[in-house]
Design goal:
It is a single chain. With about 290 residues, this protein is an all-alpha fold. The chain has one domain. About 65% of the residues lie in helices and about 0% in strands. The chain has helices spanning about 1-50, 65-70, 80-95, 110-130, 155-160, 165-170, 180-195, 200-220, 225-245, 265-289; strands at about 245-250, 260. It has a two-stranded parallel ribbon. Helix 1 (about 1-50) runs parallel beside helix 4, helix 3 (about 80-95) packs parallel to helix 7 and helix 4 crosses helix 9. The protein is globular. Mean pLDDT is about 85; it is low at about 255-260 and about 275-289. Pfam families: PAP2_C. GO terms for molecular function: ceramide cholinephosphotransferase activity; inositol phosphoceramide synthase activity; sphingomyelin synthase activity. This is Sphingomyelin synthase-like domain-containing protein.
Length: about 290
């Protein structure tokens, strides 16, 4: 056993170094897109905190999900967060698996470029939506009588820019339609559905996404409409991105002159089939001349 470990360790470090070199070159090419994606995450957080200043607590609205699903209680709010952290952490680890895995179907930088495009488009719609109409928050800290339900106007710009971190992020109110947790979950699940290779993980990911949505409603963190709108909006956004934006070549075909986003395996096969069909036609044209 020690001998096997000694033999494999240098291979692992060479694999990590080789992948890090490749990813560094991609990052040097796509750093503007990555930086823009990270910056927009801050802008989204800033907007979510800003709408809290407009929030006015009131009676909880009538909701079909609240009638069907019993409330978990304020002390069990961690349940839905645990599922979300599991999905989030698993996806992040998967995007970095090319550094240690023999099977390299994706590039980490390219996957995150696509993810940032998905998130930015979905979160832009979310910002427009929750600023358009502020609903009384159903979460326990957003209800009437809670000290956190309303926050006083900011004293200076720095207070807004820092978002009262971390409390302003954890105990936000007013950013309801539509659910941010569901945006992240669906983006991650749809991305793995497109580029992942394990079918059982794909089935499990969709199951966890459905369970998390139910737990969010049962935890009274969102109204049912927030979840429903997120499910169809995010899927439509991803459909639009996949059909309108250019793709990247697969890493197996080389990474020179890469377009904006990565190709799925199905798209690569379709493109190869088109190339084979085009070749005889081009040859026949040459013969005629």
């Amino acid at each position: 056993m020690p001998v096997y470990v000694d033999r494999e360790a240098p291979k692992l470090w060479r694999r990590i170094y080789s992948e890090a070199t490749l990813e560094a070159s991609l990052l040097a090419e796509k750093w503007k897109l990555v930086l823009a994606g990270l910056t927009f995450q801050y802008i989204h957080g800033l907007a979510a905190h800003g709408v809290h200043y407009l929030h006015r607590p009131g009676p909880t609205l009538q909701d079909a999900g609240f009638f069907i699903l019993p409330a978990l209680g304020e002390d069990k709010a961690f349940v839905s967060e645990t599922v979300f952290v599991t999905i989030f952490g698993s996806f992040v680890l998967w995007t970095f698996h090319p550094f240690v895995s023999h099977s390299k179907k994706i590039c980490t930088v390219l996957i995150w470029c696509r993810v940032f495009v998905y998130l930015a488009a979905s979160q832009s719609l979310r910002i427009i939506t929750f600023f358009s109409t502020q609903l009384p928050g159903p979460n326990y800290h957003c209800r009437e009588g809670s000290k956190l339900a309303k926050i006083p106007p900011p004293k200076d710009a720095l207070e807004v820019l820092l978002m009262n971190f971390p409390y302003g992020v954890i105990y936000g109110c007013g950013d309801l339609i539509f659910s941010s947790h569901t945006i992240f979950t669906l983006v991650f699940v749809r991305t793995y559905q497109r580029y992942g290779t394990r079918r059982w993980i794909k089935h499990l990911a969709w199951l966890l996404a459905a369970i998390q949505s139910l737990l969010i409603i049962a935890s009274r963190k969102h109204y049912t409409v927030d979840i429903v709108v997120a499910w169809y909006t995010v899927n439509l956004v991803i459909f639009f991105v996949d059909n309108k934006l250019p793709e990247m070549t697969e890493r197996s075909t080389g990474l020179s002159q890469t377009p904006l986003l990565p190709l799925s395996t199905k798209d690569g096969k379709n493109r190869n089939r088109e190339d084979h069909q085009r070749l005889p036609n081009e040859n026949s044209i040459v013969d005629e001349h």
